[in-house]
């Protein structure tokens, strides 16, 4: 890796006069052949200690960086469309972006964030070494060739999160109710192994219950975010995370999950001041229902052919963070389901930004907020390229969806921590 970096730097120093006076522009509008791999190129450039530009709202949120033959070859190898433009033309683009009348901004990207994915590494699926569902973030990171490390309960409790800039949580149940899969899957081999593994992990770390283990993990994640980290969550990791925080010290697990009864006054004992995004929600008291609370907008009166959500348009110069997180070549994104499919707006705190919504259905799909010195994003649904992904369905092949607007939102969050911090103008 060190030799590869040195060779790239050498190529940059030894480039021709034309190359030195040139910029590579990666367009992110409809002309881009592979939007997802384009993020991987931007990350790769940063990992070679070369700064890049993220041109917010310019041609779908394009990327730009100093021209080199090595970077050009990488774009060709990965099938990413690019343009080599003279520096004078790039400076004209920057001048256009700087125009106060244009809703654009140029964001400097300086450092490739170190990424952690919270995921187990034990055998869930019969005959394999993976869970019985895929994870949209690990799928797109792998496809875009962006490196990441995996952590789970043991690593989190040993304070390994301090090694990372960015943490992803996906189809996880932080309430200790094993995903509420009991009714449908309690006899399945993968479910029994999941329960056994988590109970062993809890005991190994000094906890009597899985719910206590997960609460300790949730608190470590809260420390990570409060100290300046970035947490991105999808599907059931969104609402179950906040429910666990609100229920600190309250037993909300039925005997199916922890061997003893639910606190009959659990609802009244919830403390919403502890949560990141949600408040005033009602717990689902039926322990066999595949639902945690009324945060999830269920039932939904939305048919599959009309299930879309719209991204908000923010002022790039005044609100660069939400602008970065909503960069896309389409502002209308096809919806997709999950254990947590959409957020009921009445349960969202007023301090939290709604980045994407299905307005006719009065539901939010994509949220962002601050906690302490850090940030979090909650993205509802399981797989942006698979409308109704079921347990034991095969993994999504992202080579069939290289221009997915839904997957682009995940990658926006990946690059967000690389941005040079600007003072907020409001």
From TrEMBL:
Residues 1-21 form the signal peptide. Keywords: Signal. The keyword Signal applies. It comes from the Bacteria. This is Asparagine synthetase B. It comes from Neolewinella lacunae.
